[in-house]
Amino acid sequence: MAFNWSLASRFLFVCLLCATFFPTNHQLKAEEKYYQKGNSLLESKEIDKALEEYKQAEKKEQISAYLYNNIGFAYYLKKDLENAEIYYTKAIKLDPGLAVTYNNLGVVYHNKKDFPKAAEYYKKALKLQPKYAKAAYNLAVVNYRLKKYFKAARLYLKAKRMDRSYGEERFKKERLIRSVKEELKTDPQNKDLKKALEFLQKDSQ
């Protein structure tokens, strides 16, 4: 049975989120002002100018995993997935314990439609930071893409418990239930879809 991408997209588009790292001013040394300025510009969505400042920081050897993560995020915003992947990978090499970057790299692979690899990186983010709601939601989305509907439903509710306000802002359970119901219309014998729907409806009671 063909997968209904248009229906899935209604559930998916709200969740795939990268994250930046903006340290407080007291965490920055005087010589790290390029990085600080880049962060301010990125927050203002002046992406090209932010990249210029980050590249100056890189030239001045003010290199850190946080710098590379934010360069990767800037490239992601420009829809330059190749450079985003390069810089997220550099960040992980400098700091293998930075959960946010594993999530971000997962989002890159997700956008490339390499769903198994995306799931791998979301799981790594959650292993490092078990209460990381963004990664948990993203993992729910990728499982939906992989047609693991019941697992996606469980992950969605688990993520919601991690951060209810974030979940209510980004997700609507009713939308997910409607999407699963629509999938069942095209694949009525799918036991995993039935199990997911039963699970979601039971939780709504």
Map the helices and strands:
Elements: H1 5-12, H2 33-43, H3 47-59, H4 65-77, H5 81-94, H6 99-111, H7 115-128, H8 133-145, H9 149-162, H10 164-170, H11 173-186, H12 191-204
Helix pairs in contact: 1-11, 2-3, 3-4, 4-5, 4-6, 5-6, 6-7, 6-8, 7-8, 8-9, 9-10, 9-12, 11-12
Describe this structure in words.
- This protein is mainly α.
- The chain contains twelve helices and no strands.
- The protein has helices spanning 5-12, 33-43, 47-59, 65-77, 81-94, 99-111, 115-128, 133-145, 149-162, 164-170, 173-186, 191-204.
- The protein is elongated, with a radius of gyration of 19 Å.
The DSSP helix count reads 12
Structural class comes to mainly alpha
Please mark out the parts with pLDDT under 50 across 5 or more consecutive residues, or reply none. Answer: 1-15, 23-27
- Beta percentage is under 5%
Distance, first to last CA: 31 Å
Largest sheet: none
- The 3D shape can be described as elongated
H/E element string?
Answer: HHHHHHHHHHHH
Helix coverage percent of residues? over 70%
Query: Measured on Cα atoms, how large is the radius of gyration?
Result: 19 Å
Please tell me the overall pLDDT. 83
Count the strands?
0
